Automatic annotation (TrEMBL):
It holds the Pfam family PP2C. It comes from Turnera subulata. GO terms for molecular function: metal ion binding; protein serine/threonine phosphatase activity. SMART domains: PP2Cc. This is protein-serine/threonine phosphatase. Keywords: Hydrolase, Magnesium, Manganese, Metal-binding, Protein phosphatase. PANTHER family: PROTEIN PHOSPHATASE.
Amino acid sequence: MLLRSCYRPLERCFGRIATGSGGSGGDGLMWHADLRPHASGDYSIAVVQANNNLEDQSQVFTSPSATYVGVYDGHGGPEASRFVNKHLFPFMHKFATEQGGLSADVIKKAFNATEEEFCHLVKRSLPVKPQIASVGSCCLVGAISNDVLYVANLGDSRAVLGRRVSEDDKKKAVVAERLSTDHNVSVEEVRKEVEALHPDDSHIVVYSRGVWRIKGIIQVSRSIGDVYLKKPEFNRDPFFQQFGNPVPLKRAVMTAEPSILIRKLRPQDLFLIFASDGLWEQLSDEAAVEIVFKNPRAGIAKRLVRAALNEAAKKREMRYADIKKIEKGIRRHFHDDITVVVIYLDHQNVSSSHSKLKNNAIGCTTAPVDIFSLNAEDHVEGNLVGPVF
């Protein structure tokens, strides 16, 4: 009963969407929340939509003792990323409660439970929506608890740390330290890993349409969903054979096993950038860290998104002012959906951060399910009172 009472605020929180600013300087496909408090600093979040349906989903959950960040980059449709957005954090909370705190095992169990639940949804939906078997999502999660950072990921969304070179010399520049592993077969190491797991399949990784792809289809090797590439029986289903994209498989060619990094936070660790690959296609780790380090906090995530869009525009010999006039769907030809969350780490100011949260013990910011639709609607912020972590 006690556990259920803890779930209720968490479920209510993830059922709501935070108010932010749409329309961002005339870009009707951008949404952002400029600056909000978390247990050990501030955070900023921004999203820009390129696809006809926004496939990126994201959320930040805050309490006086923990901060959770999730960035979920869907592919093939928005269903998997939306599912992860709703279910992963509650599973993490459930297993952390049962095991007495956060750990790598808790995170793995939460990823596995989310994968299993999505597979059940696919099975139930197959007769009416067979295409759902080919929908999937990358999944990047960050969690800070007791000055320990956990980063877990599937796919090619990325977490990057901005770290001061010297704790004593505060005028020195920061360095970028990548904290996550890109599970993308464009990376030679990942390509060799996949090939080693399938020595009897000379076409497990194929160079197709200018990039390396698993079975000539998909670039990422790990995800939530993509059930037809994990469970061979789905490709034999008559509904999927008729309406889906069946691929003859002997065994799974993708996995939902996350890479997990655990790191004790240090005084020289200044901020974290969590972002979908839409950002990293345009900006290097170092460029993104420099932008965060050299600019004011408020609106920093939006600034990173705009920097990426400026780069995308330059590649087409255009200006960002031209790109933001392009409608969703068509805009995907110029850039991907982009989600950015910046988490500032204020090691000396934890008490002041706690004071910001004391009247709002639990807060969560969930980016809009679809930004284009948001512009015509009003949304409420999911801020709740009462301890969860």
